[in-house]
Amino acid sequence: MLTLKHLPIASFNENIVYLNRNCAAYKTDDINSLVKIEVHGGIKTITAFLQIVDDEGLVAPDELALNDEAFKQINLPEGAKVSLTLSPVPVSTNAIKRKIAGNILTSAEYSAIINDITSKKYSNMDIASFLVASGSFMSAPEVLSLSEAMIGEKVLHWDNESLVVDCHSLGGVPGNKTDIIITAIVGAYGLAMPKTASHSLTSCAGVADTMGVLTNVDFDAERLKALIEENRAAIVSYDKLDICPASRIISNVERQIGIAQQEHIAASILAIKMAAGVTNLLIDIPVGPKSRIKSANEAMRLRKLMEFVGDMLSIDIDVVITDGSEPIGNGIGAVLEARDVIKVLKNSEDAPQDLREKSLFLAGRMLEFDPKLRGGQGYFVAKEILDSGRALEMMNNIIKAQGKVPQPKIGKLSRDITANASGVIEAIDNARINKIGVLAGAGQYAGAGIDLFKKVGDSVEQGEPIYRIYACNSTDFAFANSVVDAYTGYEIVSSDDVEA
Amino acid sequence: MLTLKHLPIASFNENIVYLNRNCAAYKTDDINSLVKIEVHGGIKTITAFLQIVDDEGLVAPDELALNDEAFKQINLPEGAKVSLTLSPVPVSTNAIKRKIAGNILTSAEYSAIINDITSKKYSNMDIASFLVASGSFMSAPEVLSLSEAMIGEKVLHWDNESLVVDCHSLGGVPGNKTDIIITAIVGAYGLAMPKTASHSLTSCAGVADTMGVLTNVDFDAERLKALIEENRAAIVSYDKLDICPASRIISNVERQIGIAQQEHIAASILAIKMAAGVTNLLIDIPVGPKSRIKSANEAMRLRKLMEFVGDMLSIDIDVVITDGSEPIGNGIGAVLEARDVIKVLKNSEDAPQDLREKSLFLAGRMLEFDPKLRGGQGYFVAKEILDSGRALEMMNNIIKAQGKVPQPKIGKLSRDITANASGVIEAIDNARINKIGVLAGAGQYAGAGIDLFKKVGDSVEQGEPIYRIYACNSTDFAFANSVVDAYTGYEIVSSDDVEA
């Protein structure tokens, strides 16, 4: 028996067990590869990955230390007596082997895999194996099985609502913060819209980041229900809701390995929205050569897949394919995006028209989830709500209900990037602009980002500023500068070519 | 700038950087997923995975701590000033995406992937992604590219030898320690045989474990050369040779995820033997329903693949397909296997005949690598060397040159497993026997293992012992006992059925 200790180290989802090299209960000096261990003593056995410590001050030979994640899961006090055994490879690993061999997996196999993931029996490398093995070869019924398995035990119920609506836009288009404007319009119309949103994973800002500039977004399920009863609409982050844990773990691994397959995106979005109790869901698939979805064919395949899974899960889905060829709005990064959103809601003269129009179009589609609204009327109702100031009023109510937050400032370091030729902007590379913004610190610092002065079709003179980069510290600023000079992401057709 | 500190924690190949949650140089409180960081200050930038610490005693806000692996790689003293930046996803990740999409990768892409793996830019989950993505879909030229990339910078040269021979047996057959007997025979014949061997990863004993019972097996390249000059033969572990690092890292991940594809096995074996400077290599592929390679077709495919890659790498390969339907010899686990090996070398009356015959057959094939030996004579020469005691003499010389080690004892806990019916042993399940042995502690403790009293074709009476389990501690003993009762791994055809 060993004595339990807590080493306050957070390892992002993985359980770690630390043993002294001269551990009294387990011979560690022969171990030359990663070992998975089961720790016994709590109500539930936990699984953790072994690391060896050579300092008795950190972990003594008669101690067993756990990191934050594992210590929380074992739920015992320091000083408790625990024992350990080697952990076998999880049985569901056989399903991964079957998938590699090209088989169709059963619903039970997907359940077993997701259970092993959420109970931390899988390491991140096991999860990566599963994602890569299943990525390109999932049938539509398999995507349904995966989505069902991911929903999880905790589901929000909206007993007083017949319609609970939400929207989700696939990533890859910088600045695309229509969701916040849509929520204000749909809430003002009167539909219940508990908009759940995520923080940035690989982009310059998630919806939760941009909304987080304006108001608090961290609420649990009870508080979210109260917000909806008060205002009909709210915009909250997934973090405190604590629903669909498998989705978060899988996204984290996808981000790390830089690989995200359509099948997993479809399964994940639908599982999250099912867990949030949504009855009617609008999906926006922006298509563009440098967007996440690159062709109309690909978008259509994803649309059909999501429609199939949605129908089977009895969630009413409307999938819209939109133009994702260039950024939406001018601001990229939480502070700049929040500025654009407020300009649109205030009907300011300099509000970005592309952001306004896309928001109205999508909000119109959402309003038509209401059976009482005549087909084709959604857009005009949405426009009336925005133009009349009712959407702005709703946003103010949402901010008041969710609570003020300290206003983050725009980055103190900035640089204007100028046109290298006179002419017309022919294309803007979403992926490049996103990369420059992320290097400048966007996604991590609300005040970092890019403010676009020119969009596709605009004329520029050589030397005229096309966008401005903002950073909050000199390291990020230097990084962004080091890549922007190689390629700005803007394609300019020179006036000479146009005339010729 | 932060002050460098070493946290003496070993993490099995992965670099970890520890920052205090209130780090002075990097905002960590918003981070909710694994982050890869580059640490600057040493001659070479190193890449490490971030973990967050909440204890100033472990890591202060102005400190940056590294685990064993990362501290060794950065090669700076504690107290040095270092800085950090976020690490981009390695460029070679694009090749993994191309592989998932079904493409043939180029030689340059495999080089880039392996370089990123050995320089620790890949996490274990990145490596798992690569292995799963490439596993089932590699062309023969791709396996060649992977093998070439894995060879690495450090290659042993044998300037005084025209022939340098070695052998390798694919796993899955418990007790299969022909390699040690072959080395004694081939060395006695006079060919240079620097036999390189590995410790157990998932089996009851690797060749290095079994040989480690008899003598020291840890030598660097210089000492190995001296051993070969002295005796013509030696058996050493890969560990201190420090060749082909990619192979070790990849095997470690394969073991963890429980997935090993033929293409990687072929590439890995050939890369290791190339790095060891081998000119002529015998490969033994045991085939059996519960062996690693399960069918003759599969074995033939692997043989052709290894022949192709070997020819391209200009290593002379002889691939032999053998019977892997049941364990070879009686002892399973390092101490028991070493006993069997010595019995064969001593020509003892109770030496396992299957181990003897297979060793002679394979040693004969190896001897025929010598151009001076007439085809078909190898077996008889090998038999003469073994029967005359020259192989035993060579083994004694090898043990004397490599040095004595403390003799590990057989496990003090044991239990006889008995036949549940009278009849004839029809089959022995390799995988089951291996599992029971590993649970009993074999692979970790030299003295743990299984001693088989009956083999396929033997008659048994109900209640007669069929094998004995040995364990070194009560936890392992209990584990082995808990599974053996469900299924012993022995199939017995009852005498009644045979008579009927």
Secondary structure: elements and pairs:
The structure is a homodimer of 500-residue chains.
Chain A: E1 2-6, E2 9-10, E3 16-20, E4 36-40, E5 46-53, E6 63-66, H1 68-74, E7 81-86, H2 93-100, H3 107-118, H4 124-135, H5 140-151, E8 165-169, H6 178-189, E9 193-197, H7 207-214, H8 221-231, E10 233-237, H9 238-241, H10 245-257, H11 262-275, E11 280-287, H12 296-312, E12 316-323, E13 331-332, H13 334-345, H14 353-367, H15 378-387, H16 390-402, E14 413-418, E15 423-428, H17 430-439, E16 449-452, E17 459-460, E18 465-471, H18 474-484, E19 490-494, H19 495-499
Parallel strand pairs in A: 1-6, 3-5, 8-11, 9-10, 11-12
Antiparallel strand pairs in A: 1-7, 3-6, 4-5, 4-7, 13-16, 14-18, 15-17, 15-19, 16-18
Helix pairs in contact in A: 2-4, 3-5, 4-10, 5-11, 5-12, 6-14, 6-15, 6-16, 7-13, 11-12, 14-15, 17-18
Question: How far apart are the termini of chain A?
Answer: 84 Å
Question: What is the topology, as strand order, of the major beta sheet of chain A?
Answer: 1-6-3-5-4-7
Q: Pairing-aware structural class of the strands and helices of chain A? A: alpha/beta
Q: What ranges of chain A have pLDDT less than 50 throughout 5 or more consecutive residues?
A: none
